[in-house]
Amino acid sequence: MNNMKKLLALSALLVMLTSSFLSVSLLAQDEDLYSFEVEEFSKQIWEWKRELSLSGSSMSFNQESLFYPFKFQKEKETQAQELRVQMLIESRWDWDWSRLYLVAEGGRTVSTLADANERNVFLREGYWQLSTLEPHSFEVGKRLLRWGKGYAFNPVALLERPKNPENPEAGREGLWVFQGVVIPQAFSGLDSNSVTLVYLPVRQGINDDYESQLEQENIWGLKLSALLGTTDLDFYLTRWSEKSETDWGFDFASNLSSNFEVHGEYAADQVAAEKYGKSLLGVRYLTDSEITWTIEAYRDTSGWTKDESTAIYQTIKNGSASAAKSALNKLQEKQIINQNYAYVKASFKEPFSWLYFTPSLTWLGNLDDQSSNVITQLNYAPVTNWGFQVSWQQLSGSADTQYGENLVGNKLDFKTTRSF
Amino acid sequence: MKNQLLLSLKRPSIILILLTLLTLPLSAFAQSTAQEWLEAIDRDLNPPQYESYRKLINIEPDGSKKEFVLFTLKQGREKVISLFLSPASEKGRATLRVGENMWLYIPNVGRPIRITSLQSVTGGVFNNADILKVDYQTEYDAIDLVETQQQGSTGKNLLQLNLKAKTGAVAYDKLEMMIDQDLKSPVIIRAVAASGMLIKTLYFKNIKDFGNGIKRPSVVETDSPLYQDYKSIMIFAKMKPRDLPPAVFTTDYLGRIETLR
User: Fold this and answer.
1) CA–CA separation, A147 vs B110, rounded Å?
2) B34-260 is classed in which CATH architecture?
3) Can you give the pLDDT at residue A210?
């Protein structure tokens, strides 16, 4: 009951925020069109940006999901509603000799499910950068490296937390690293190039949630980047000292024409004695009717085959309690379930001359088990610094498939964002 | 006497040589061919290396506006960087162009992603090729020069300089540039597709002396038959020469561009 009151209060706040943008739009001045008070944009030592968002979601649970009996052992919930208020702060201090960057996030979630209520505050990124070496740099702190060229998948992201292909642009938490970047002048026929060296320690209290099975590890990373004509090329190498494992990869991206981009990645990933290959090929294509197509095909040999995943699902459903628990743990630990995926997103810019309105349709398919995850999204940013988003996610698939067994069957989301 | 004679004989020659030397720089910069006009326009519109601030305004048919403020750096004929300073929702975004290559850096995404010239990072009538404008010579060949019957601000007839894209990767297939001969500046540029369809018209206004020998239109307006009743405006301010190392114009540096203001 208490939660419902909070939900109602937050809903009222959302309505107020949503309606207020209309009045803001009426304040648009038309005094001197060509005036430009440029002095107000002069650089400050300390600059910051805040983003306040209010989001709500309503989800229906898939009662046929194998996760359902584990999640709802007593009360058989069929749906849930959540409201979340979140503040994101980005801040930069720029002194003569160094800089400090901070990106922090805090939020409160109120849900009709008691165990989903939460408050959290955490540092996404926070690092210090020596600026006397310009254009080269040396950084230390919490940093998200963001290696790769792919949009939904990044096989070469060898030193970062995994990206969620359902929401590739969602904020992620960085890792504590030392990073040096050297940008030499034009070199051996390349238009530009750089060398990045990363050291990522794993100790108690430092990056221990990234590699929880390790007590101590020293991970070294090397990235070589170059622009060759109209093609970006990167080569990656990582070395895990304690485990004596070496991973490597490369990526590329190129504009084939003024409206067509192609990109790809490959990574050779070693886990214990096993070696896996992860690859991605993608394109981005803008049509004459302003539809941007983003299409990616992803293959990861560390994923299960259809028969292997079916066996896991069957064990969870029909196996002994201990076997089921063991299989469930394996499934939950798996970052990628099967081996072959496809991602297709069509984003339609300002259809019917409706300015600042961008609807999109995304299909994320598990090609091995033929299950799919479809997201329809409407983005509207009619007023400066305001953004509105409504999305509908529908997961489908037969029994013993990734999205067919997903606990949430469908989900309606809305989000209002105010930047200042 | 002999010396006086020699001097009197030499004097006209010396005067002639001096006059020739004095007029040489003028004649060297006088434009007569299409290619010379193209080079002159590039020289005046885009100094070899500079920094500037720009305000972009998108105006909708109902009069409502959306504004963006950009800090821009340019080097050579084909390297441009723009950093969004305002509004807050866009602050920190940066775009880099090196020839036909374009990247967009979004702080949340944290790495440069390739974009295409026909997309628009701001919405409105300006596309990425307009916002990250490189020298016209980089993308276009001068085809011909025609004197029109249309008069410029000082009464002289406008010239029409016709340009053709060097490759299919260029945003517009043809440009029809109307030039004011006295201002040595384009007044109107019509961007035309390979099909012959008019894509947009750019209007150059308000010639301003920015100092350091930089004198150019401080306002560029655009409209398009593809966006009926919409208009976009670009206003230039604080344009001044700035020499930077080539390493700044690389994707690795994009996340640090704001420190160069």
Assistant:
1) 10
2) Clam (2.50)
3) 87
